[in-house]
Amino acid sequence: MSTVSSPVRGAAARSTALPAPAPRRRGPGRGWKVTPWLFLLVPLGLLVLFTYVPVANMVWYSFTSWDGMAPVKEPVGLDNYQRIFTDPDMFSVFLVSLYYLAGAFLQLVLALYFATVLSFRTRVRNLFKGILFFPYLINGVAIGLVFLFFLRPGGTLDAVLALVGVAEPPQWLGDPDLANISLASTSVWRYMGLNFVLFLGAIQSIPAELFEAADLDGATSWQKFRFIIAPGIKQVIGLMTILAISGSLAVFEIPWIMTGGANGTTTFVIQTVQQAFEFKKFGLASAMAVVLLLIVLLITWVQRRILPDEKVDLT
Amino acid sequence: MSATTLPGRTGPVERTVLRARHGLRAMHPLLGPVATTAKYASLVVACAAAIIPLVTVFMAAFKSKEEFATSDPLAPPQSWTNLDNFATAFVDGGMVQGFLNTSIILVVALVGTIIIGTMTAYAVDRFDFRGRRLVMGAFLLATLVPAVTTQVATFQVVNGLGLFNTRWAAIVLFTGTDIISIYIFLQFMRGISRSLDEAAMLDGANRLTIYARIIFPLLRPAIATVVIVKGIAIYNEYYIPFLYMPSRDLGVVSTSLFRFMGPFGAQWEVISAGAVLVIVPTLVAFLLLQRQIYSGLTSGATK
User: Fold this and answer.
1) Fewest C-beta in 10 Å: which of A4, A103, B43, B79?
2) Same domain membership, residue B296 and residue B264
3) Angle formed by the axes of helices A176-204 and A140-151, nearest 10°
4) Nearest to A28 by CA among B126, B204, B198
5) Is residue B177 part of a domain?
6) Claim to verify: residue B54 and residue B70 sit in the same structural domain
7) Mean pLDDT in chain B?
8) B28 pLDDT exceeds 60?
């Protein structure tokens, strides 16, 4: 694959101090060794410093009761982990992610529907596509404020509902029974466009001959979806589903900006941030982060097992 | 209606042309008007749902305080030239500082990401060395670690480096933890013929020259993709500046806008103006770069 045909006479070759055995004419010579590492020095340094060191430290902190400042990190064994799974206050955040999980599935269904519909001939197709996609590009804080405005009492949603005769709308964010649904819906509004565009791209890469053959056979739109589109984009659907599941566990921005976690809308990540930076419980927060990381790794592992991705060829 | 093709009306050539241009296929000719109507109705409803929350905020941004208090959220403002709220948002709300900080971070982090990403891709794709697979594996594994989980510990690293509450915190984190860009460069570099490298080497060019003079310029399309995708991500990022740059002077677009909720708590017309100020640049970028954004996201999201 990567045989290089001419021996290097560059700076790197000279910089090796030890006499190397005569370089073979083809294939990697010894003098090559330093050059790639020179290119990789900074990237690898940053990778280790900002990804691997934090992960290792996080695992370490998770077995201590560290407050983030004290010079000593008192080991506490598995106490932090035990607390996450036994303290009801801690555990309830997992239930909140179920709202987002449900939202994520709704989002995938909507995205698939609109991608399918727009893959057929449609007037002003690009306009529809652009409008449905644009919310995904908007700044999260702006979305949070837009929806606070939209959902507040007497706000846009209430005004729209008044037009159709709903006189006494509920408190969309104030009512604890509704708050998570409102927030999960906001999340659907925000992310549907990305799934939709990725589905649409995948559908359009299906060879046109398949559709022509289906037309000749007199297939209905539903049959085309069922037997051509769905199998053709199975891979993307699988990937999006996995991302939706891990995404619904890692929700942070929308509830943080809109309710600050009030009214039972605290998510796992909000809880982690609060434990660490407000209550200075870095040990507990690290344990929570480790749990989330393990769940995400598990989900990804399951994905790789059930959906062997033919496209992933990175070495 | 429009979604149906009358058989025989268009010749095969025309049909192929149509398909090639739009990637469209005719719905089945027997699809009735009911289904067509339902299709357009669903599209219109979805677009209304996408637009109405934005349009009402846009209208509110032009209303005066009294007007806002008395008018219906769905009513347009009396005057589309009332820019007072924007002025308040810009000056009192600190959005000037926000746009300035975001611009600085955006430029430096993008330059850093491009240099680091292209160097990594060059080293991994063009050299065969011991540990190459290990390096690839290290980058691949890192894509699985969601940044949101590790911030608790990353915070200590950033703090230890003395970068807390400086713009460098955001810059190094945007630069040093972006693995998607590396993959975009890597994929693109595979398509650049090695014979170019070899020809340059025969002419006596060293590896750095080949990287800088030959590979880097040829990567221009991939660089454009990374600039667009990552530029949008940095502009929208809230979590990192929120954690690492709490100082008021260091507010970026997101955190400055977030701070609107305190002092302007009840002044929805000012908050709306702030949100509009943040959304408009995104809208302009989208209208200008639609095609690149769509394809960039596809290459970034599916890795």
Assistant:
1) B79
2) yes
3) 130
4) B126
5) yes
6) yes
7) 85
8) no
Question: Is B139 an 8 Å CB contact of chain A?
Answer: yes
First-to-final CA distance of chain A: 10
Q: Which stretch, A29-38, B63-72, B293-302, has highest mean pLDDT?
A: B63-72
B103 part of a folded domain: yes
**Other residues' Cβ atoms within 10 Å of the Cβ of residue A31:** 18
Interface ipTM: 0.85
Beta bridge partners of A64: A75
Q: For B294, name the nearest residue in chain A, comparing CA atoms only.
A: A197
Quick one: tokens of B152?
């608790």
Average pLDDT over residues A113-137: 93
Is the domain of B165 the same as that of B106?
Answer: yes
Residues B163 and B214 in one domain: yes
One domain for residues B19 and B99: no
Domain boundaries, chain A: 11-62, 81-306
Q: Please count the structural domains in chain B.
A: 3
pLDDT digits (tens, 9 = 90+) for A155-181: 899 999 999 988 888 999 988 889 999
* A81-306 fold: MetI-like fold (1.10.3720)
The Cα–Cα gap between A239 and B118 comes to 27
Q: What is the pLDDT of residue B35?
A: 83
Mark whether B218 and B260 lie in a shared domain: yes
Asked if residue B99 and residue B236 are part of one domain, the reply reads yes
Q: How many beta carbons lie within 10 A of that of residue A78, not counting itself?
A: 10
* 3-class secondary structure, A78: coil
What confidence score (pLDDT) does residue B24 get?
45
Mean pLDDT in residue range A140-161: 93
Residues spanned by the domain of B13: 1-26
Q: Do B177 and A55 touch (CB under 8 A)?
A: no
Task: Pick the range with the lowest mean pLDDT from A84-88, A199-203, A307-311.
Answer: A307-311
Residue B87 resides in a domain:
no
B 225-264 residues with CB < 8 A to A: 232, 235-236, 238-239, 243, 253-255, 257-258, 260-261
- Answer yes or no: do B60 and A149 touch at CB < 8 A: yes
Whether the model pTM is above 0.90: no
- Cβ within 8 Å, pair B177-A51: yes
Q: CA A27, A37, B183: angle at the middle one, nearest 5?
A: 85
- What is the DSSP-derived secondary structure letter of residue B10? S
Pairwise CA distance, residues A174 & A152, whole Å: 9
Structure-block tokens of residue A274 = 């609060």
Both B175 and B37 in a single domain?
no
Q: Do A139 and B235 touch (CB under 8 A)?
A: yes
Q: How far is B231 from chain A (nearest CA, A)?
A: 11
User: How many CA atoms lie within 13 Å of B41's alpha carbon, on the beta-carbon side?
Assistant: 6
DSSP annotation of A32 reads: G
Question: Does the pLDDT at position B55 exceed 80?
Answer: yes
- Mapped onto helix, strand or coil, the DSSP state of residue A220 is coil
DSSP state for residue A30 in the 8-state scheme: G
Whether the pLDDT of residue B105 is over 90: the answer is yes
Q: Decide if B278 is inside a domain.
A: yes
